[in-house]
Design brief:
Length: 350
């Protein structure tokens, strides 16, 4: 996939503007949308402000370990997605995980069985989006990374995209925005009042996501399977702990945890320093991890730990007032379609 950025003067679509779709955002939604449009025989160009595709399915590379800081696992709830996941499995970029889930609190741990099959990227969550990007490359879809789109411009019934407030890309017949609603709102505001208002109604909540790499494996709480994989945590600060080395394809990396904070707690600590958040999440981890009688000093081996420098956002779905028809989101050939939108036929992830 071409990753070079267009710079300087605007360039015209080689096929003309009649069949060229621009997609803003190369997370899972943007990549999936690109595949559908490309499979329909149309030209597609993807733009993402990040260094690579993936969005909230990206993974953090540390010298010792690879850690997922966004999506940890996903379930499959419809036939079409089931078929797609089967293709991902055949391509070797996804595996079942987790199978040993616990609910943990300072007073104890209980197995958590909900009968749901879940999957994770192999050997990292971003392997899925990298695979999709590689598939699109074979379909001649162009991806421009490190290209933040700052405005949409309409000229002679065609769309142009402005990046970095200076460069122009286009022309395009239509634009699909898969950026989270607050970022989409800025782009659609001059063009579509209804869509702008819908973006504003989708409330975004901050979520601190941390990580920790340990020199030694954590001792197993008594009575718990040694290779527990995920714990849903009953703690004011922390809600989920995932052991990255138990994910498919990461068996050789050391004990390394993804630590997802509670949304309410994240909101009240949005302005705290990363150092303070890291300490709070590690303290929370200690609170529900009983000290093992044979290894009382394991916390002395301080982990390498941190949180991502900027807060990852998650979307909260309001209970009422969402659009009920996808067409309600379309106007003047701009559409919003992403993880922040919940529409008929689009089951919530998790
Ligand atoms: C901490 C955390 C944990 C999660 N855990 C789970 C989980 O366990 N299971 C699950 O199913 N889901 C989980 N999710 C949700 C899941 O990650 C998202 O629903 C999904 O990845 C969203 O995909 P998307 O393509 O809609 O959006 P994104 O992945 O956010 O993609 C949007 C893309 O748009 C780009 N972009 C934004 N603005 C611009 C612009 N102006 N110009 C160019 N590019 C732009 C961004 O760089 C980004 O790559 C989690 C999310 C978070 C944050």
């Amino acid at each position: 996939m071409a990753a070079s950025n267009m710079s300087g003067a605007a360039n015209a679509s080689p096929e003309g503007a009649s069949s060229h779709t621009a997609i803003i955002g190369a997370g899972l939604a943007g990549l999936a949308c690109a595949k559908v449009v490309a499979d329909a025989g149309q030209q597609v160009t993807l733009f993402d402000k990040g260094r690579g595709p993936g969005g909230r399915m990206s993974s953090k590379h540390r010298p010792e370990a690879v850690l997922d800081l966004g999506a940890q696992a996903f379930s499959v709830r419809d036939d079409a997605f089931n078929e797609e996941v089967a293709r991902w499995q055949a391509a070797g970029c996804v595996g079942q995980w987790p199978e040993r889930i616990y609910r943990a609190s300072p007073t104890g741990w209980q197995p958590h069985h909900d009968g749901q099959v879940r999957y994770a990227g192999l050997p990292r969550m971003s392997a899925i989006t990298r695979h999709l990007a590689a598939t699109l490359e074979a379909s001649d879809v162009t991806l421009h990374t490190a290209t933040p789109i700052t405005a949409l411009i309409r000229k002679n019934a065609e769309w142009w995209l402005e990046s970095n407030n200076t460069e122009l890309h286009g022309p395009y017949t239509r634009v699909v925005i898969t950026a989270p609603p607050p970022q989409a709102a800025i782009l659609v505001q001059p063009w579509d009042t209804q869509l702008f208002e819908l973006c504003q109604r989708l409330v975004q909540r901050g979520c601190w996501a941390g990580w920790a790499v340990f020199a030694k494996p954590l001792p197993t709480p008594i009575g718990i399977e040694k290779d527990w994989q995920m714990a849903r945590v009953d703690h004011p600060a922390l809600r989920l702990v995932c052991r990255n080395q138990t994910k498919p394809g990461r068996e050789n990396q050391p004990e390394s945890l993804s630590l997802l904070a509670n949304l309410e707690w994240s909101e009240t600590h949005l302005e705290a320093t990363p150092e303070a958040i890291t300490q709070s999440l590690l303290d929370a981890l200690k609170a529900f991890t009983p000290r093992h009688s044979n290894c009382p000093n394991y916390w002395i081996a301080a982990p390498t730990a941190g949180v991502i420098p900027s807060r990852i956002k998650t979307t909260r779905f309001p209970s009422k007032g969402l659009p009920t028809e996808p067409t309600a989101l379309r106007c003047a050939a701009i559409a919003c379609a992403a993880g922040g939108w919940k529409m008929p036929g689009c089951p919530a992830t998790g």
